[in-house]
Amino acid sequence: MAETCEARMEKTINSLKDSFNSIRTGRASASIFDKVRVDYYGSKSPLNQVATIAIPEARSVIITPFDKSLITEIEKAIQVADLGFNPSNDGKVIRIQIPALTAERRKDLVKQAKTVAENSRTSIRNIRRDGNDELKKQQKAGEITEDELKSETDKLQKLTDKYIDEINKIYDSKEKDILQN
To answer: Please, which residues have CB within 8 angstroms of residue 99's CB and are 6 or more apart in sequence?
Structure first.
């Protein structure tokens, strides 16, 4: 039971990290564009599959499409993704200047990160609850003894505490990253 719950908790942590990657800080990063989808011959493709993303400086990004005819589609996709960027192209590459974050925007991003972290904590607690319910069913059915139930419940609680601590560390790191100038 604990192994199943641990695998689900691990997925929650990975999901949290993915969500945090798309919350931008004051610096340029290719992961900001992870959720951008470009219309590529009728299907939506991730930006990193139709172009290279280079970070020449801390606050600038250069996107070079593999197929030059996609340049306007990529520009549109970035604007539709509502990342707060204003892309400009010269016919060959798209240049994006990442604006500095205002204090108000930083607070909003921290609030957003806090919400994502809290949702992850809730998810971990729900996994623990599901595990405990399953253990109680097994005990009622006579598959495990009361001592085994207590032991497995304790294991689940330790797992829950471990993963909630990990979420808190990841959140603290992201908050520090966002608030840095």
So the answer is: 59, 84, 85
What 3-state class would DSSP assign to 53?
strand
Report how far residue 136's alpha carbon sits from residue 149's, in angstroms, rounded to the nearest whole number.
7
The pLDDT-based confidence of 181 (bands split at 50, 70, 90) is: low
Question: How long a stretch of residues is the chain?
Answer: 181
CB atoms within 10 A of CB 103: 9
| Mean pLDDT (whole number) for 51-80 | 88
Q: pLDDT tens digits for 5-49?
A: 999 999 999 999 988 887 767 677 788 888 889 988 888 889 889
Residue 176 tokens, joined = 């520090």
pLDDT of residue 152: 93
- DSSP state for residue 99 in the 8-state scheme: P
Half-sphere exposure of 136 (CA within 13 A, CB side): 6
Q: Is 76 in contact with 89 (CB distance < 8 Å)?
A: no
Q: How far apart, in whole angstroms, are the C-alpha atoms of residue 55 and residue 40?
A: 23
